[in-house]
Amino acid sequence: MPESHASSLPWKFPWTIELPFSLGEWSWEAPVPRENRHKKTIGLFERFLRHLEGVKQEEIIDTTPIPQTATLTPVREALFELNEKIASLPDLENESVIYKACEPYLLDILAMIEAKTISADDLLLTLDPFDEYVKQQAPAAVLDNVLSKQWIAIIHCLYATRTDAGHDIYGGHVWHQCLKSVLRMTVQPLTCDLLDELLRHTRQYEQVHLEPSEYIELMQAHILFEASQFQQYPDAKLISTHRLRRNIYLCRMFVLKGSAPTSVYEQLYHSCRDMGNDQTERRTITFHMVLKLASIPGLSTVEFSEEVHNILANKGWTEPEAWQFLAIRLMNRSRWNLRPEYLDQWLEMPTPQHSWAALLHSAFHRHTKKRRANLRALVSASDLFGHLGTLLKSARLIRSHRRYVVEMVKHERNSVFALAIWEAYNEDLRNPKKLKLPWQAWVRHLDFIMTDPVVPTGMIFYIAEFHPNSVPNKLRLGRKKTTHLIDILERIGNLYMKKPGLTARSRTRWLEKTIIFGQFSRRPVPLSLIQNYAEVQFQELDQGRLGRTSRFKWLVRKIKECYGEEQARKAAEAIEQWRMANQKPWREFMPIFDRSEQASDQKIMPILGEGKQTSDQEIVSIWSERKQASDQDVVPIIHDASHTEDQMIERQMKAQRRSVYKTPNQKSNF
């Protein structure tokens, strides 16, 4: 619009546009009234709407109830009349009579709450409605029961009159004082019901940040309250969902202010433990302290373990007690996506073992990151309290139980603990070989398993499944240059070459097993495996150990496939020469490779005439000549049907050995 301009910089809310003419007076009303727009925080758009409605900023901030004045408020008048009426009652030990006398007072308070005319200070006065005369005449348990009934009705009325789930016009200070008053009451069922209702209806309010001294005071009162209730009713159900919910809601709502030191929890424990009279009471206090630690939001797995160790509370817990720790810890670690309502579902299982399995099933989230955190919290806590075997045995009740154990082992950072998980998983099984885990689960722990001197040499083949028909042949995401099955087999072969304390024969057997799995992998056998195998075989020949001929045949065949025919021929000649040099004079020489074309033109060793008897000295001289020929790079005689002279020599040597070293009544030693 001509001759119009915005407000001057810097722009601040509300914005204005100056026009060359006046638009006149006008008003605007939002489609939804302000009292029906439920906003936890007032954003920029909401401020803009309220500015258009003419609501001032001071009215937005001032949401507290009517403050207490110096004059006598209606609540004080109602309390004065209530105490006069109760004092005139003949029987102050009858709970129903006292509650009947309090009904008019309670109706007045509820009417004030519905009309929103009661202040925070007046609301706190209703926590202590009885004067000193009434407290002296009536039993404390009776008055606490009456007060519990009154406040349960007050809490329900407050909950019904709120505008949204998180709407709290009184603030955390009021609820802090309410909790302190409730925890000072006599421990009885109706008082516990009041505590349940108070924590349940305020669970969606904003967190209340307390100083360390206030935090210790509140949590100490709650721990002693729960411990005394457990002592009064020892025959109650061992696992109480109400007790677990109270711990969860209380620890979620009241937290330490700022970056308070973790030593606060240790101070809290010692202050509560000193109040225990005997070992049973101290154990009960320790149990509730561990529940507190498991319910504290933001406490990592490592920090939780450290705090439990600091208070020496990691031993001596039964399976039901450990289950409660794990259940709360799992809900906490899931950031309360697993709500407290899951407790009833887990406990409705037919057996306690199924309840443990239900924890595992709920922890298996569809997202990898959340699933990893949940399972790690369960496994770490179960091992901390000495019930890792119970958790893993319950996993067998799940249909695809191997997936759960694979996830635990795969993402475990400690290799020793990963092996402990596998051992607990296979405990008390007749055939644990059937429960091998896929090789993908052990990629992270391979170096430790292969190099640690305590771990048995062939452990990797005992715990890992390598057959491609049973497990996938490829990783979804490569790790440490390991993508396919053949990659991890190559690493295993290299680690066997570095593993100390193995004999050459033992190293050969493990390399052969690795190569066999490599042949099943449907991919070419790596050159490093063949090189390692050839190195071990040549070391054996160099030390005078002949080994099996089938191994040399396989080695030459693989050298031919990988390096060509020329290299295979050279390797065959070298192996033959080594074998000839290591032969003993009285043992038969059986060549294992075919004659090459170049060997026919070479110098042939001297042979004996047909039908000629050979003495021991002649046999020794023949083999000495062969040894000299091998030292001079002379190709040995190759076993072939066309060379009848060679066959004749061998037959004569066999006959001579039979006549010299064997008698009719004595078996041969060879």
Structural features, described:
By secondary structure, this protein is mainly alpha-helical. It is 57% helix and 3% strand. The chain has helices at residues 44-53, 57-61, 74-87, 95-115, 120-125, 132-137, 140-160, 172-183, 189-201, 212-232, 241-253, 263-273, 279-295, 301-310, 319-333, 342-347, 352-363, 368-384, 388-394, 401-410, 415-425, 446-451, 459-463, 485-498, 504-520, 527-542, 549-563, 565-582, 616-631, 644-661; strands at 5-6, 17-18, 208-210, 254-256, 437-438, 464-465, 474-479, 482-484. The strands form 4 sheets. It has a two-stranded antiparallel sheet with strand order 1-2. The chain has a two-stranded parallel ribbon with strand order 3-4. The chain has a two-stranded parallel ribbon with strand order 5-6. Helix 13 (279-295) runs parallel beside helix 15, helix 26 (527-542) packs across helix 27 (549-563) and helix 27 runs antiparallel to helix 28. The radius of gyration is 43 Å and the shape is elongated.
